[in-house]
Amino acid sequence: MNKKIKQALTATLFLLFCGSLYSQKNNTMIRISEIKIDSNYLGEYKAILQEESRASVKSEPGVICIYPMYEKEDPTEVRILEIYESREAYEQHLKTPHFQKYKTSTLKMVTSLKLVDMEAIDPETMYAIFRKQQE
Amino acid sequence: MNKKIKQALTATLFLLFCGSLYSQKNNTMIRISEIKIDSNYLGEYKAILQEESRASVKSEPGVICIYPMYEKEDPTEVRILEIYESREAYEQHLKTPHFQKYKTSTLKMVTSLKLVDMEAIDPETMYAIFRKQQE
Q1: Do A46 and B117 touch (CB under 8 A)?
Q2: ipTM beyond 0.90?
C-alpha cells in the first residue's frame, strides 16, 4: 500500500476513534423533574423517594446524580436533578426494582409531573462537582 | 457536686455539642436559580456564566456545586443548581471578583431572575453525589 494512503487511513481511523470517544462523553442525559405532590401524602412520598434515590446512586454506576429537593416555601413542589452517564444507563435505571417500586407506589401521590430535558453549560468541569463523573 | 447532677450536666453538654454539630451539617444552602436570558445575548451570557461557575467551583472550598444548565427546548431558560456549605460560604462567594464580574457584565442580558430556596430530601447521601461534600 502506498505510504501516503496508509498515513491518510491511520489519520482517518484516529479521527473516527476520537469522534467516538467524544460522543460517548457527550451522551450524558440531564433532566430536572418537576413534581407536584398531593399534600396528604407528602411525608410518605418523601420517604419513598429518599429510599429510591439513595439506592440508585449507590448501586447503579451509570447514575451520576439523582438529587431530590423540595421548595422551602412550598414543600409539595419537588425538584429532582437527574444525571445519567448515557441513555442506556437511564433505560437500565427504569428497569431496576427500586425504581419500579417508587413508580408504582407513588402514582396516586403525584398530582403533576414535568420532565424537563437539560443541557450542561460546562460539561468539562462536571467532574469537579460530581463524584462519579470522570475527568 | 452531687454525682447525679454531674451526670445530668455531662449529658446536657453532650447533647448541646451534638446539636451544634448537627446544625453545622444542616447549614447547607441549596438553591435553584431560574434565569431567563434575552436571546440576543445567549452565547455571550453562557460564556460568562461558564467562566464564573468554573472559577467558583475550583477556587472556593465552600462552593459544593454551581451547575448551570439550559432547557433543551428553550435555551433561553437557564437553571443553576447552587449548593453552598453554609450561608457564610454563600456571602463570601458574592464578594469574589469572578461573581462580581458575572453580575455586572450580565445585568442587561437577564430578563427575569427567580431564586428558589430548596431543601434536600436526603442530606445524608449528598457526599455520594457531590465531590466536595464530606461524609
Answers
A1: no
A2: no
Q: Which of A34, A60, A52 is nearest to A104 (CA)?
A: A52
Provide the sign of the torsion angle of the four alpha carbons B69, B71, B76, B82, taken in this order.
Answer: negative
Cβ distance B130 to A129 less than 8 Å, yes or no, reads yes
Amino acid residing at A68: P
Residue B60: CB atoms within 10 Å:
20
CB atoms within 10 A of CB B24: 11
B89 and chain A: CB distance < 8 Å anywhere? no
Nearest to A57 among B72, B75, B125 (CB): B125
* From A30, A69, A132, residue closest to B30, measured CB to CB: A69
Closest CA to A127 of A60, A52, A65, A66: A65
Burial of A34 (0-12, 13-18, 19+ CB in 10 A): middle
Name the DSSP letter for residue A125. Answer: G
Taken in order of first residue, the domains within chain B and their CATH numbers are 28-129 (3.30.70.100)
Q: How far apart are the first and last CA of chain B?
A: 39
Give B30-73 pLDDT, tens digit per residue: 999 999 999 999 999 999 999 999 999 999 999 999 999 999 99
- Residue carrying the nine cell digits 479521527: A15
Can you read off the three cell numbers belonging to residue A88?
Answer: 442506556
3-state secondary structure at position B116: strand
- Tell me phi and psi for residue B27, to 5 degrees: -90, -5
In B, which residues are within 8 Å of A118 by CB distance?
Answer: 69-72, 79
Q: How many CB atoms lie within 10 A of CB B52?
A: 22
